[in-house]
Amino acid sequence: MGEKASSYTILWASQTGNAEWIAKNIHSEAKERGYVGECFGMDAYEKAQLDKIRVLIAVTSNTGDGDPPDHSLKFWRFMRRNKEAGYFNNCQVAILGLGDTNYSNFNNTAKRLEKKLKSLGATVFYEKGLADDAEGLENVVDPWIEKLWDALPKVLEKKSEGNGANGDVDNLANKVEAVKIEESPTNTNPYSGEERAKNVPPEAQKYLNLENSLIEPTTNPYSGEERAKNIPPEAQKYLNLENSLIEPTTNPYSGEERAKNVPPEAQKYLNLENSLVKNKEKEHLGHALTLDFSGLQSGMQLSGMPRIPAASAKLVRLEKTRSLNEAPTTQCVVTPTPITEAAVSRVQCLTTHDAVKRTLHVELDIGDGLEYEPGDAFGVVAPNDESLVEAVLERLVPSTAEGYQTLYNVEGESLPTHLQNSKSVSLADLLRYVVDLTTPPRKALLRLLAEYTTEVEEKTKLIYICSKQGVSQFNSVREQVPTLLDILKTFPSCNPPVERLLDALPPHMPRYYSIASSPLKYPGKIHFAFNIIDYKNLYDVPRKGVATPWLDQLTGFVAARSSKNPTILDVAAKSIKVPIFRKENANAFTLPSDTKHPLILIGPGTGIAPFIGFLQHRQQQLKIRKSMGGVGTHPSRDIKKEFGDIWVYYGFRERAKDYLFEQELEEFVKDGTITQLRLAVSRESNKVYVQDLMRQDLDKLYDLIINQDCSTYVCGDAKGMAKGVNDVLVEMLVQHHQLDAVAANKLLIEWMGSRKYLRDLWA
Ligand code: NAP
To answer: Taking every annotated instance into account, which residue ranges of this chain make up the domain FAD-binding FR-type (predicted)?
Structure first.
């Protein structure tokens, strides 16, 4: 090996913030260890001066089915164009990929990056790490980073001895690694309710054993019933209100009773599924996690904990406050294109109340503020659930008013991307829009929380969870999909400053939806459809998504579909606004400009959404063409020839329950927009999926794809469906095109490059 380099460059490409966070942590640790270098997002590759890099550490995640993250598309365009064989001759690389084995092209981006860098002359100085989110990224990321520190000295010089303990950088890791358990918290528990109760001063003893007390009740003279006896007569009427602290027996103030007093014009909004009227209860009080600490033994040596993440963000309190009735603002949100506040103009529910999923179809009024074409998607900037935000604020910030009205600037040396617009922002908006409160925690977050936990037993447990020895507890934490509040509830003496959470929590991501309309049919509007996600974790604790429950509240006035023709509710008058922005159509998932081009469209469930836009577009183009009139003896036949065949493969569970866009699809068949509509019904008699129908049609598909140069579009779930469809196309090429499976797969990849086979796959 030649001369060592004097500095390193880290490049990251992040979809949800993980790769950025990991890259920046490697950067800060490298600096602490005495190395000199820089860290850039891949799209800032010009600043990074790629041709001068001697030691490159690249951290990249994947999106869709092994596609590069949105923030690295510019970088990838540059790399694709770069054919200079010796461009990276002086560069030594180490690559860390973040992927998920649930998807067929596991960590494709990291593999492609290594291949491309090597083809341009780079050599690998440390074998790539391919982390798998299905098992927990940490399982690969942590040891990969640990061993990076052994590999780096071979190619890179240190500039100083770093600022680790006693100047000895190798002690740096040990400083946090060795935690000796002094107590055996599982055998005797000096921090139990009973033990702590012994230290309560006499004047406070009467407050013990109140219902909901932190200390377990045994007999309860202060129960709801008992205390109710002392309530003065004029306050008796407030007893037994729903959600009262005092247990209801009969409840004259129940939802049903109160509904009787709702004025007639508002009656129609009662009892609708997910109506705002029904959803009154405060949902987020936090659920303590169920964890087994029997493995945590006295005298145990814990190791392998992550470093405590370095703080990059600082909250600077401003003199300004925000008035109480001012609405939350999305100004602090970092988005790739500007945010438009789009009014909801129409809503309908596409499924019946007994369907497996509830799907809503929403129309937004975008005026002329946002241009799009069928196949585009957009991002919705949805807040975290308000009751969760409130509860986290109440838990972490002693005065709620402080959190809601006081304004701050977030400052820092190298702020993570998601904090870069956080100026004049309230803590509430930071928790609403900027940080993720619902994604299962990283180990490093738990390590940070341990730093701010005062009870020794709780602190020890937190450190145990993020140690090598506590890996099954860590997995159990993640499986329970806790919110930040659940974690804080599990460790009541944990009180981190909000400031420290800003860069330790993942960024709150926008949610993306395909546009299900054509601007030719609905100028100034966009339509989209989405499923409401509600589920319970392993311990029966309810969990839900972020954007869809929020949208569901906004649009929750609409009843479930009861017949073939769902009611459409015009909600324009309600001036409900949704902050949205246009997403770059990275895969150019759009219609070919030549209408003669035949198409195969495959999209089960809400995967049909972009194709509704395609079909509306073709329908309108056909109408426009017809209105122009034809010449010759068979004008309408001649016009028809200008429009290629369209075959649609669509799937749902039961025709009567979740056949989304039923009416519209059947109209497309009737007016000739769709040549053939193939419906895969999965739960009526046999389980039939779209790929099963394709398998029945292999001859026809071959004719369309090979003889008529048809384009094949696939939209939907990246995990199962996309692979099933790909397998059928391979089968078709093996049977009819005399290729073996490897060559068939290679041809399909070529078709992806030439836009003959396009996929818009969703995690
Ligand atoms: P879904 O309701 O879960 O499923 C629709 C149909 O697909 C059901 O009949 C289901 O059958 C079947 N199915 C299940 N596994 C399959 C497999 N391996 N191969 C083929 N078919 C299969 O669909 P969805 O939840 O709407 O999901 C569609 C996907 O499209 C999601 O990943 C979503 O994120 C994505 N997407 C959403 C949008 C949007 O704008 N909202 C746009 C584009 C794509 P069984 O359940 O009976 O097995």
So the answer is: 337-592
Q: Ligand 1, closest atom to CA 359?
A: 26
Q: 340-383+510-582 has which CATH code? A: 2.40.30.10
- Nearest ligand 1 atom to the CA of 529 is 41
Question: Distance, CA 145 to ligand 1 centroid (Å)?
Answer: 37
Digit-coded pLDDT (tens) for 64-114: 878 899 889 999 999 999 999 999 999 999 999 999 998 878 999 999 999
- The protein residue with its alpha carbon nearest to ligand 1, atom 41, reads 530
Topology annotation, domain 599-762 = Rossmann fold (3.40.50)
Q: What angle do CA 426, 431, 436 make, to 5 degrees?
A: 150
Cα-Cα-Cα-Cα dihedral of 717, 718, 724, 729, to 10°?
110
0.85 surpassed by pTM:
no
Share of the chain above pLDDT 90, in %: 64
- CATH 3.40.50.80 domain residues, the chain: 599-762
Q: Counting beta carbons within 10 angstroms of the beta carbon of residue 553, is it exposed (0 to 12), middle (13 to 18) or buried (19 or more)?
A: middle
Ligand 1 pocket at CB < 6 A: 357, 513-514, 528-531, 604-607, 609, 651-653, 682-683, 689-691, 715-717, 720-721, 724, 762
Task: Give bridge partners of residue 343 from the DSSP assignment.
Answer: 365, 577
Decide: residue 723, CB within 10 A, 0-12 exposed, 13-18 middle, 19+ buried: middle
**Cβ within 8 Å of residue 245, ≥6 positions away:** 211, 212, 224
For residue range 131-148, list pLDDT tens digits in order: 999 888 988 999 999 999
Q: What is the mean pLDDT of the chain?
A: 85
